[in-house]
Design goal:
globular, two-stranded antiparallel sheet, 31% helix, three-stranded parallel β-sheet, single chain, alpha/beta, binds flavin mononucleotide
Length: 129
């Protein structure tokens, strides 16, 4: 049905990042925002209703946790925002076997008046400038 309308995938996000630490644990429509996968329970509910793939974003830092959720659910794709701003090579290093968690400390100071870059680890200055 959705595909008939030209919708082939849905990304589920609440666009929370700076406020996330205060919102984790809060419940809306009987669904609770989770600490390390903010919207995973929303994604599970949505997946019951629709048959196009779902991308969920928000709070992912651990590849083991992403893999566990992937194995335990039928959620198709997992997106990362701040972790990739902090470590643009994060996926490459996970693939290469260094599976330590993303270094991102979720401070959300990566949204600046001069563009989006990690201010916590000076990544921008050390590697790009
Ligand atoms: C610098 C920055 C810019 C963002 N811009 C957008 C945006 O334009 N549209 C949007 O829907 N979400 C935007 N977000 C929210 C992210 O898509 C994402 O939902 C949020 O950061 C939580 O995911 P994370 O824990 O992987 O960072 C932005 C987040 C950051 C930190």
């Amino acid at each position: 049905m959705l595909e008939d309308l030209g919708i082939h995938i849905i990304e589920l996000s609440g666009n929370i990042h700076a406020t996330a630490k205060d919102m984790v644990g809060q419940t809306f429509d009987n669904i609770t925002i989770q600490k390390d996968a903010y919207f995973i329970d929303y994604a599970k509910e949505l997946k019951k209703e629709i048959n196009v793939p779902i991308i969920t974003v928000g709070g992912f830092k651990h590849i083991e946790e992403i893999e566990k959720i992937y194995n335990d659910t039928n959620i198709d794709f997992y997106a990362l925002s701040r972790p990739l701003i902090c470590e643009p090579n994060l996926i490459e290093r996970w693939i290469d076997g260094n599976t330590t968690p993303a270094k991102c400390i979720r401070c959300s100071k990566c949204r600046t008046a001069n563009g989006n870059y990690c201010t916590a680890f000076n990544y921008y200055i050390e590697n790009i400038e």
